[in-house]
Design goal:
four-stranded parallel beta sheet
Length: 157
Amino acid sequence: MSDALFLHGMLADGRVWRSVTAHLPALECQTMDLPEHGGAVAWDGGDYQSQAFEMAQSLCDAPVHLVGHSFGASVALRLAVERPDLMRSLTLVDPVYFYAAKQADPALFDQYAQRAGPVMQAIEKKDHLHAAELFLGDWGVEGGWAMMPPPAPRRDC
């Protein structure tokens, strides 16, 4: 049983939390890789957020300190709302609210989904590097992919 569960954002994996968890020796820290990230199971093709939610929920057999970054924060927030019995505390770092937006305003979410279409098409084609480049172009700084160190864009996704 872990004291804390850490959920990463897109284009990362649980290893991004190493420098944080190293400073928390009093806690038993666990990280979780989102579907299709790191060593996680494949995305089942359904609702990505729901699959990540189910995965996170399955790791909480007792109340935990839940920490999430970006998309991982949206999963953490949903877990806190739907399963408050599993929370000791909740920390959200740079959360995104796609799932909440989809529920609150489907038309507005559809506008975003159209903009994200090329990323989703690249994912469907299993062209993960191109999907990452497109995602970073939309959510990162202009020219961010080109600024990455040479080994980074070549890393197997």
